[in-house]
Amino acid sequence: LWSSPPSNALFEFPKPALLTVKGILKIAFKLLVNDKGKFAALLVGITFAVFLMIQMTSMFAGVLKRSSSTITNIGAKMWVMDPAVNSPVSSIPMPDYVLDAARSINGVKYAVPLYSGSALVKLRDGTYQAATVIGLDDSTLFGRPALLEGKIEDIYAENGFIVVNDAEFRKLENPKIGTEFEINDNRGVVVGIAKVASSGLFGNPTLYTTYNRAITYIPSARFTTSYILVQPKNSSDIPFIKQQVQKLGYQALTDDEFIQKISDFYVYQTGFGINLLIMTAISFIVGLSISGQTFYTFILENLDKFGALKAIGTKGRELVYMILFQATFTAFIGYGLGVGLAALLIMAARLRLPDYAAQITYMNLGSAFIMVVIIAGISSYIGIRKVIRIEPFDIFRG
Q1: Rounded CA gap, 49 and 339, in Å?
Q2: Going by C-beta distance under 8 Å and a sequence separation of 6 or more, which residues neighbour residue 131?
Q3: φ and ψ at 148, to 5 degrees?
Q4: What's the rounded Cα separation, in Å, for the pair 166 and 175?
Q5: Is the Cβ–Cβ distance between 338 and 51 less than 8 Å?
Q6: Residues 47-97: pLDDT tens digits?
Q7: N or C, where is the chain less crowded by C-beta within 10 Å?
Q8: What is the pLDDT of residue 306?
Q9: Residues 159 and 153 sit within 8 Å (Cβ to Cβ)
Q10: Which residue has better confidence, 268 or 238?
């Protein structure tokens, strides 16, 4: 009888067992950390790049936050100002009729004046210290800070001032309730110690008093209203209020819009943003060059090992996985070390320098992470091109 043909299994050459993905990644990890010098150089390059990027962007974020400290601390929903105003320190006084007109606009719940200016404070030891003076509406005290000591009613007392306890507090010789000083040859008395959400940008302590006392003590031009604080009845009334204020020749902005205007001023009109961008780009290029060159050298020194893996049946895509794993692992470790180092430095700087404005935000972390991913991607591409072209015959022949 005709029987079925014998199986040709006996005539096939045995195939090597294929490596699992876990095994491939394990080999990639051992190859990476085996040369401690190259691995350390890769980490140093990425860590240094992330550290510089976090430092630059955190300094910028801190400056922008402090530049808007007046808006944040006052807490008004809308601000009416001269259109030429770019920052709170450059307020342009408005005539009194603007306040009356703002109060008469439909949709306005109430509107109060705010004074913002600078003055010289003569301390007990005879030295002078520049200070920012905020004059609150006498009737409502809208925008008053939260008090740590004292009573807010005492601001109406003769010569009463409230001092903000922030990073600049020590410049006024750490005053207490009852401390006396001179401000533009007028007597001042501390009646309260307050806290605010954000310190100022230019290193000057802040004093709060009533509006009328501020314009009396501080020499000013014909007009004295720096800003008008407007509280709309509803959010839907804001566009109409803006239109009516614009007809008067002035500008009404929400608190978020005012903060954005200040940020745009510092970014685009002061050169600060351009300088920061250049420094961040330099740190990115340094990190990319160091990590890319070191990773390429690492690949060259391990070509024989990649060739051996290819000879035993490892596919090209599996070698790509190895390279991607090595670059990603190094990038994430370097990212964590860079962020940690930057955070430690900022914390140490704040302990020694209360005026240090840097702060780490989610935006800083996100931008640095994206740049690290780009560094890892370019480094991987350099390595992958070299490994894919390798031929096992060339390796064993060598």
Answers
A1: 10
A2: 118, 119, 120, 121, 172, 183, 204, 205, 206, 207
A3: -90, -35
A4: 12
A5: yes
A6: 888 888 888 888 888 888 888 888 888 989 999 999 999 888 788 899 989
A7: N
A8: 75
A9: no
A10: 238
Instruction: Output the six-digit token pair for 55.
Output: 């430092």
d(CA 89, CA 167): 18
Dist. CA 22–CA 28, nearest whole Å = 10
Tokens, residue 31: 């190859």
What does DSSP assign to residue 208?
E
Measure CA 301 to chain center.
41
Q: What share of the chain is helix, strand, coil (3-state, %, to 5)?
A: 55, 15, 25
Place of tokens 């501390």: 190
pLDDT tens-digit profile of 15-33? Answer: 444 457 777 778 878 877 8
How many other CB atoms are there within 10 angstroms of residue 203's CB atom?
14
User: Which of 331, 356, 79 shows the shortest CA–CA distance to 226?
Assistant: 79
Task: Name the pairing type of β-strands 78-81 and 251-254.
Answer: antiparallel
3-state secondary structure 73-88: HHCCCEEEECCCCCCH
pLDDT tens track for 346-388 = 888 888 877 777 888 888 888 888 888 887 788 778 777 777 7
Nearest Cα neighbor of 134 from 97, 177, 91, 172 is 91
- Cα-based distances in Å from 158 to 179, 217, 232: 13, 12, 33
Kind of pairing, strands 186-195 and 180-183?
antiparallel
Q: 387: which strand partners?
A: none
| pTM assigned to the model | 0.74
Mean pLDDT, residues 325-345 taken together:
88
**CA–CA separation, 277 vs 271, rounded Å?**
10
